[in-house]
Fold:
Amino acid sequence: MWGISTDTPFSQDKFRESLSLPFPLLSDMERKVVKDYHIEHEINVPGIHSVVAKRTYFLVGTDGKILWENVEGKLLPDQQVVDAVTKFP
Structure:
């Protein structure tokens, strides 16, 4: 298991440490994964235009196929994510 975001590796390390996460967090600063998985989210409000990564969850099998996903852009309750992960071997 691992996590990924467009934050810097330094930010990722601090976040991981702050939550004592037992898995690595990878940095996608070039937004390759964000583009490949089509999870770009455009923010257009007066004075602000930005493209960010939508909060998304993917559970990917060892064969590279997506077993479960949530692309609603919302933070899920921890238990919902744990339930999804424990469904699959």
The chain has a mean pLDDT of 83. Residues 6 and 29 are 5 Å apart (CA to CA). Helices lie at 9-19, 32-36, 78-86.
